[in-house]
UniProtKB/TrEMBL annotation:
The keyword Ribosomal protein is annotated on this UniProt entry: no
Listed Pfam families: FAD-oxidase_C (PF02913), FAD_binding_4 (PF01565)
Protein name from the UniProt record: FAD-binding protein
Keywords from the UniProt entry: FAD, Flavoprotein, Oxidoreductase
CC cofactor: FAD
Source domain of life: Bacteria
InterPro entries per the UniProt record, alphabetical: FAD-bd_oxidored_4_C, FAD-bd_PCMH, FAD-bd_PCMH-like_sf, FAD-bd_PCMH_sub2, FAD-linked_Oxase-like_C, FAD-linked_OxidoTrans_Type4, Oxid_FAD_bind_N, Vanillyl_alc_oxidase_C-sub2
Family to which the UniProt record says this protein belongs: Belongs to the FAD-binding oxidoreductase/transferase type 4 family.
Annotated FAD-binding PCMH-type domain residues: 57-236
Provenance organism: Actinomadura barringtoniae
GO molecular-function terms, A-Z: FAD binding; oxidoreductase activity
Length: 474
């Protein structure tokens, strides 16, 4: 296993390998091509569109375009190709990998005002939406027809469908219903230079040609700009969900319970694991009154008869749970789940947070959590971990001083060790947040040279001038 290069020293050099001319663009000519009110050039107003939820320092954009329709996006892409100006697409800016941060001299292309739910077709269980639709709004609209939109990232009340597609976002329910790619049937995409293509369709099945829909989902705006999506809806559960909470004296026992649940073929709608450090922070935040000796908690939820709550409790008890119980009504189910949702705010009140996103085979989850704890102790940094245990997807939150503009060297070293561990255990650098800027230094640890070369060949074929979100993802 190679030694990974830490973030320091190379993280912000991501433009060095692009072919983009970042000299001052003639933005007034772009403004003349767009309807009034679409173009922003005031530096203070642009600042709000230049960054995402990470500490990644953005460049200074030349302009921001507030697109209202596909025609606006086509105009921007044609103009950008003519003047060799980079374009950084963005949704709500909730990303956690630096994927939507501006580069110097770019046009930030905001899709947040493309908010139409164009169709909901109950008979075909699908919807056609623009990229600026808020994820939770689509779910609420679908439920009016007895359906649901399954992907539910933690930011579902503020994140957009376009951003979810760009990063192949997951969420709590993905253990049963899959990630965003599993709900994407077809896309409308504007390519570099302004060509518009449509991938996939409205059918459940379709294998004509290459899977271009799958290619664009998760590409982080580096191959094209998604301007509409046909997405799969699913029948909403008929019964109210039941939540199970189980506490354990060790991470190993909690991990064994998660493995037993999935190994038994049960299909919980969510299966989350929370470590001791996170539990202590949540208790300080909201007084959940868990036993001080609790090392980990599993929170599981079932929304259908194929996964009886009693079976979830049984597997937790057999794995050594000190306490395990199921909710008795809908309000209690929601209250127990709220423990999981408090993890991020509990961490954020303690300082700046670097939120990471490694994923390992489910059987290696306990070992990965133990290696996270060892890395935190070795480098004397505060790390709080929550995990989508049913997927093996872990989110270590590194907490550091608010006065710092980025993670200090001990945090960088601990993150490097954790990324290395994930790859050694047969895992990946990111399960749902994307690579963005922050994880590019580790890509050659996960990909062999030939595989990485294929990624770059695809990028070259679709974006030969390197204008789309340069320096991100690959």
């Amino acid at each position: 296993m190679r030694k990974y290069v830490p973030l320091s020293g190379i993280l912000w050099a991501f433009l060095a390998d692009t072919k983009v001319d970042v000299s001052q663009p003639p933005v007034e000519t772009l403004g003349a091509l767009l309807p009034a009110g679409r173009l922003i050039t005031d530096p203070d107003a642009m600042d709000a569109y230049a960054r995402d939820q990470t500490y990644a320092a953005p460049g200074k954009p030349a302009a921001v375009v507030l697109a209202r329709d596909t025609a606006d996006v086509v105009t921007v892409m044609k103009w950008a190709r003519q003047h060799l100006v980079p374009v950084v697409p963005r949704g709500a800016g909730t990303g956690l990998a630096g994927g939507a941060t501006a580069t110097d001299g770019c046009v930030v292309l905001s899709l947040a005002r493309m908010t139409a739910i164009q169709e909901i077709v109950p008979q075909d269980q699908l919807a056609v939406v623009e990229p600026g639709v808020i994820t939770a709004d689509l779910d609420r609209a679908a439920r009016e027809h007895g359906l649901m939109y399954a992907p539910d990232p933690s930011s579902h009340e503020i994140s957009t469908i376009g951003g979810n597609l760009a990063t192949n976002a997951g969420g709590l329910r993905c253990v049963k219903y899959g990630v965003t790619r599993d709900s994407a049937l077809g896309l409308e995409v504007v390519l570099a230079g302004g060509r518009v293509i449509r991938t996939g369709g409205r059918t459940v099945k379709g294998v004509t040609g290459y899977d271009l829909t799958g290619l664009f989902v998760g590409s982080e705006g580096t191959l094209g700009v998604i301007t509409a999506a046909t997405v799969r809806l699913r029948p909403a559960p008929a019964d109210a969900p039941v939540t199970v909470l189980a506490s354990f004296g060790s991470l190993t026992a909690a991990g064994a319970a998660a493995a037993a649940i999935m190994g038994a073929g049960l299909r919980p709608s969510l299966l989350e694991l929370i470590d001791r450090a996170t539990l202590r922070a949540i208790d300080d935040y909201r007084r959940i009154d868990l036993d001080a000796d609790t090392a980990a908690v599993i929170i599981a939820q079932t929304d259908g008869p194929e996964c009886p709550a009693a079976e979830l409790v049984r597997h937790c008890e057999e794995a050594g749970a000190e306490f395990a119980a199921a909710s008795t009504d809908e309000a209690e189910a929601a209250a127990l789940l709220e423990v999981r949702r408090m993890a991020y705010p509990a961490a954020e009140r303690l300082g700046n947070c670097l939120v990471e996103d490694v994923c390992v085979p489910r059987s290696r989850l306990p070992e990965m959590m133990e290696r996270i704890e060892r890395a935190a102790a070795r480098h004397d940094v505060r790390v709080m971990t929550v995990a989508h245990a049913g997927d093996g997807n872990l989110h270590p939150l590194f907490v550091f001083d608010r006065g710092l503009t980025g993670p200090p060297p001990p945090v960088q070293a601990a993150a490097d060790e954790i990324f290395t561990a994930a790859i050694e255990l047969g895992g990946t650098l990111t399960g749902e947040h994307g690579v963005g800027v922050l994880k590019r230094p580790w890509l050659d640890g996960e990909f062999d040279p030939d595989t990485l070369a294929v990624h770059r060949q695809i990028k070259q074929a679709l974006d030969p001038d390197g204008l789309l979100n340069p320096g991100k993802a690959i």
